Structures are given as C-alpha cells and as structure tokens.
C-alpha cells in the first residue's frame, strides 16, 4: 500500500517546491535588476546590459543622486518617511482603538456602523482622491504636509482587521479583572487591550506603511511644491524627464533601489511580533 503512494507523494512535493521556487524567482527578479542596474551609467542602461556588473559605478550614481538639485532626492526621502512613518503609526493606533471599541462595547447601531466600515473597504482609494482634494481645498491645507497626512489616518480595512485581532487576542475575563481592580476604560485599553493586540497593531502598521510609502495618486492630486513630494512622485517626475534627458535614468534607478530599503527594514525588524502572535495563539 505504501509503495504506490510514495512516487505520488514525491511528485507532489516536487511540484510544490517547483512552484515556490518560480514564485521566489518572480519576486526577486525586479530586485536583482535594480541591484545591477543601479551600478550603470546612462550609456550602460541604454545599451541593455543591466544584468552585468561591467562598468560598475554605484558610488558615482549615489554621489550624483545626493548632489542633484541640492539633494532634493533625500528631501523627498525624508518626506516619505514622515508621511509613511507618522501616518502609519497614527493610523494603526486609530484602527486598533476603533476595533477594540467594536469588540468590547455594545452601543446602538454598532453592527450597522461596522457595516459602513466594511463598505469603506470596498471603495478604492483613487476614487476618494478628488473628494478629499475638494475637502482639503475648503479647509486650506492643499499643497501642505497635512494634505497627505490627514487622509492616511483612517483605514477601514485596518479597523476590520483590528476587530478580528481583538476578538482573538483579548479575553473578556482580563478586561473584567482590570475593571474590578479599579482601572478606568482608557487605562484598560492602554495597559491591557493594546498590549494584547500588539501583533495586530504591527500588522496594520506594516500594511499602512507600505501603502503610504508607495502612495502616488493622492500626493499627485494634493501637492504642487516639489519640496513636499514623496519619493514616488519625485521619481515619477524624473522618469518623465528621462525620455528627453537620458542622464535621469541612473538617478531614477538608483533612487528606486534606495526606496526599497525602508520597506525591507520594516518587515525584517517587525516580523518577530508576528511570530510572537502566532505562538501565543497556539498556546491558547
């Protein structure tokens, strides 16, 4: 009985590993291209030999990137860190607080209100860009940092995800014990609820950080001052000029390579919280 099943098991394992290998190659291919292309000058890129390290000039590209237009690229870099870092951190806190409230408290119209939150998940963010621009124009924050920061503070999917995490990680007994000990509702949330749902907080943070870091359409609508641009919009402006001036190509490619670094650092440094959450669930 075991003999006939062994080849099938081996073939299934080979097929799965092969599919995973293809997926890894597919995902790493653009990064490998960036790593090698960032070492080329404009002539090397236009010659089509981006995958070789011939004519290695990464240091020169980084120097030109830092010096071009008085270092405007790293000004965009700081803008992106501000938009993504502060925006994602505040959005995560708001989302977890809202998800905690939906899970813990009973109030009139609770499920209907949560239904509106789920409806907000279905609305694409690009469809909201123009209404948000009109609102920003009414309050006079167009072409300011607030025009990008304020809209990213709310994430309906983050609220939904936070409620799911709260339902799985926060036992009612722990909250009741804290209330019996005399803790107020804010203290219960800050000291117990937020601590227990920290894997969910980190998950929402990473999702929102990635979304804001890669956000393009909202800054395109809201901003006209280049000094307020994030990396996505600044690199797009350079790439638009590269067709007329090929010297922009190395700047765009090298800048795109550096733009990946914060995402990699965020995922690598925060993945332990996901592992802790998974093991905590298994212990329960």
Automatic annotation (TrEMBL):
| Protein name per the record | Carbohydrate ABC transporter permease
> What are the subcellular locations of this protein?
Cell membrane
Q: Which family does it belong to?
A: Belongs to the binding-protein-dependent transport system permease family.
Its domain of life reads: Bacteria
* Membrane-traversing stretches: 15-36, 81-101, 113-134, 146-171, 192-213, 248-270
Q: Which species is listed as the source?
A: Streptomyces exfoliatus
Where in the sequence is the signal peptide annotated? none
UniProt cross-references to Pfam families, sorted A to Z: BPD_transp_1
Q: Which residues form the ABC transmembrane type-1 domain?
A: 77-269
Coiled-coil stretches are: none
How does the entry describe its membrane topology? Multi-pass membrane protein
Q: Which UniProt keywords apply?
A: Cell membrane, Membrane, Transmembrane, Transmembrane helix, Transport
């Amino acid at each position: 009985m075991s003999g006939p099943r062994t080849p099938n098991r081996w073939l299934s394992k080979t097929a799965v590993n092969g599919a995973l290998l293809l997926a890894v190659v597919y995902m790493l291919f653009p990064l490998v291209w960036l790593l090698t292309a960032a070492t080329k000058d404009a002539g090397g890129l236009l010659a089509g030999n981006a995958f070789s390290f011939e004519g290695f000039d990464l240091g020169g590209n980084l120097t030109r990137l830092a010096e071009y237009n008085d270092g405007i690229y790293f000004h965009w870099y700081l803008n992106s860190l501000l938009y993504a870092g502060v925006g994602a951190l505040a959005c995560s806190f708001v989302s977890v607080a809202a998800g905690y409230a939906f899970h813990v408290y009973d109030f009139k119209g609770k499920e209907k209100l949560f239904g509106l939150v789920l409806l907000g998940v279905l609305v694409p963010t690009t469809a909201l860009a123009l209404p948000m621009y009109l609102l920003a124009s009414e309050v006079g924050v167009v072409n300011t940092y607030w025009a990008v920061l304020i809209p990213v503070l709310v994430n309906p999917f983050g609220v939904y995800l936070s409620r799911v995490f709260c339902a799985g990680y926060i036992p009612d007994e722990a909250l009741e014990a804290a209330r019996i000990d005399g803790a107020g509702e804010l203290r219960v949330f800050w000291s117990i609820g937020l601590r227990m749902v920290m894997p969910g907080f980190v998950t929402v943070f990473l999702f929102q950080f990635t979304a804001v870091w890669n956000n393009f359409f909202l800054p395109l609508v809201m901003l006209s001052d280049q000094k307020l641009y994030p990396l996505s919009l600044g690199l797009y402006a350079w790439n638009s000029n590269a067709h007329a001036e090929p010297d922009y190509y190395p700047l765009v490619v090298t800048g795109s390579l550096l733009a990946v670094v914060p995402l990699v650092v965020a995922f690598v440094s925060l993945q332990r919280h996901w592992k802790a959450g998974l093991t905590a669930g298994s212990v329960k």
